[in-house]
Amino acid sequence: MSEKLSFPAGFLWGGATAANQCEGAYQEDGRGLANVDVVPIGPDRLAIITGRKKMFDFEEGYFYPAQEAIDMYHHFKEDIALFGEMGFKTYRLSIAWSRIFPKGDELEPNEAGLKFYEDLFKECHKYGIEPLVTITHFDCPMHLIKEYGGWRNRKLLEFYERLCRTLFTRYKGLVKYWLTFNEINMLLHAPFMGAGICFEEGENEEEVKFQAAHHELVASSLATKLAHEIDPENKVGCMLAAGQCYPRTCNPEDVWQAMQEDHENFFFIDVQARGEYPNYAKKYWERLGLKLQMTEEDLSLLKEHTVDFISFSYYSSRVAAANPEASEETEGNVFASLKNPYLPSSEWGWQIDPLGLRITLNIIWDRYQKPMFIVENGLGAIDHPDENGYVEDDYRIDYLAAHIKAMRQAINEDGVVLWGYTTWGCIDLVSAGTGEMKKRYGFIYVDRDNEGKGSFKRSKKKSFYWYKDVIASNGACLGD
Ligand code: P53
């Protein structure tokens, strides 16, 4: 086999999900309510996830897709068997914090919740699948939001640390790859989802967001410290919603704007990978007059406990301009961008840019020189199953093939270090952005619709067999 066509030996192929988007069973076995439960499908969703509309409990007249999601809580054995059949080497999933600590501030964990994930991890190992665990994927117990205001409050550090200690101790030997916070930079764009923050009338929103960011960053360092102490085998990563920002033109004003927007996102990873706040951030806070509370001890934790690897999601590149017109914006994404006229778009207006993945990999590698892990990538599309649930999803295969080739080039031709690749929503699940089921990413079709109807039946799509071949040939079957 030509070396150029293959991935490095031991490359971790797999798929990714998040607890709130697939588990359902939101009240089972002592689980507590979380922010992610009370975000409905429909026109109010965006205002709620961005912290502008307060919804702290279920309200009449709304549908909440996370309550049942795809009921993976009761289907996980069947689902992991299907991942095993595809040959997954790794499966990225997240822990629902409120299964482990239902309110978040208890001293003792909920055994039923711990047992659920223990069984799940054991099931993975049956098939030689290494779990890759996101400690928090946009979830925060509601009690911590109502009582403490979410991550704006320093008390969250203590609760998160307890969660981490519990997980690292209990799952020692079962899990060695950990991610501290999913898409940590999303906190700035969707603060209720990213940090359990709902803004109060008249408060300084920037100050609240960056204070919460500081708390999450210190929490991430604490987690890294603990993970290494409890088991030196543990590898801890940060997680960025990535996608290089291109300037709309070569006008230096546009280039400057694109650089500013990249800084907003790299800010988090600069801290997690390099151990200190970048000067551009300190200057920004100074200009805005933000007063952030941080201790010397916080800063030394950040310095001493940087991450082992850098993981990121990649769906698209972005475009920025100094003087954009509102009409040029792409639709349907909390992660705003201008339209790139050179690229096609998905049915949800997300632009498709495989070369952008190679560019993003190179930029991140140049910036940090730490091993990388692509933990989300994929195409959300409308599927048309036949009577057996079979979907001829060539559009999804084309998207993934092009992105896999781009990352193969980044590894084999550019020399970046990439540990693995997990496609997003390897089994159809609820969309984080819109709450829809109709926006599907999976190799496995799930019979469930936007209104909550369907049998939860799983069936294999064409891409299921395709991805199986990709993994079995370690990427070589894709050809040039
Ligand atoms: P969906 C946008 C909006 C919300 C979450 O997104 C996002 C993004 C993309 O940058 O991030 C991730 O479901 C997230 C997943 C999510 C996935 O993108 O809106 O980590 O939870 O499902 C895809 O199509």
TrEMBL record:
InterPro entries: GH, GH_1_N_CS, Glyco_hydro_1, Glyco_hydro_1_AS. Transmembrane segments: none annotated. The keyword Cytoplasm does not apply. The active site is at 376 (nucleophile). Keywords: Glycosidase, Hydrolase. NCBIfam families: PRK09589.1, PRK09593.1, PRK09852.1. Belongs to the glycosyl hydrolase 1 family. This is 6-phospho-beta-glucosidase.
